[in-house]
Amino acid sequence: MKFVKKLGISLLILASFLASYWLRNDDKKESPLAKTSEVKIVAMAPSSGEVVFALDLGNQLVGVSRFAKYPPEVADIAKVGGYLDVDLEAIVRLKPDVVVLLKEQSDLAKQLENLGMATLFVDHMSVEGIMGSISKVGERFDKLDEARALRESLESRIDAVRIRAQTKPDKRLLLSIGRELGVGKVTGVVAAGAGGYHQQLLEIAGYTNAYSGGENFPQLSREHLLRMNPEVIIDMVNIRDAQANGIENIMADWKSYPELSAVKNGKVFLLVGDAHFVPGPRFVSTLEWIANCEEEGGGR
């Protein structure tokens, strides 16, 4: 219990990833909705809200997840709870024409549809799913040109990373997407594992995931880390935790693992920002950061 209380908010965001694998169902049905530019939209995840805004539909967004932080305009939009604590009454009060859901939220979809609301499912558990959601939202809300332009822009940037990766030496990279902070050492590391879009970002950037097991979001013990012995480490931290604990202190935690190649060779990098936990259109910026981390510095 003490450990759970100390976990940063990044692990709360991670909970949505974990839940999505437990609840995943690929046979979701969507309720119909006439294509119109006048519909009111509720987005049940930060990532789907970002897609809506990226397609110039922000003026039609009337409700968002309580975890939504981007773009800044979401601060003025009504909150409808989070992934695990949906405020159904708040959604009903907003009278949306369509609710954009993660594909794992089928139970919520049934409740909404019983109340006469249309739904749209998106898949944000993979790069292909994120890209596909852009097209899907664009088609549903008559933003095909915007969706096509956004996809082309993102695909061009992804291709550029792939090309650069072909000339990079293969290295084992550990991507920590959450851990206990403020205890003076590295403990409770949750890593990008066998599934999820973070694992794909490593592959596209030209790295081999240092974790080779079958779990999607493994929690790694000291023994695991020592056996893994990554050559590069990226430690993801959200803004709130970075401010609360201090960047230098977070980086210093890794001194508790002097045996690791990444630590010995100054190849530990801190990736700070809430965007890196959100599988929306900004994922390409995370990809580019990963691909450039060794060239642009930041290691301690």
From TrEMBL:
Q: Does the keyword Signal apply?
A: yes
Q: Per its UniProt record, what SUPFAM superfamilies does this chain match?
A: Helical backbone' metal receptor
Q: Superkingdom of the source?
A: Bacteria
Q: Name one GO biological process term.
A: cellular response to iron ion
Q: Which Pfam families match?
A: Peripla_BP_2
Q: Does the keyword Signal apply?
A: yes
* Keywords, alphabetical: Signal
Ranges where the Fe/B12 periplasmic-binding domain occurs: 40-298
Identify the PANTHER family for this entry.
MOLYBDATE-BINDING PROTEIN MOLA, VITAMIN B12-BINDING PROTEIN
Can you name this protein?
Fe/B12 periplasmic-binding domain-containing protein
Q: Which organism is it from?
A: Rubritalea profundi
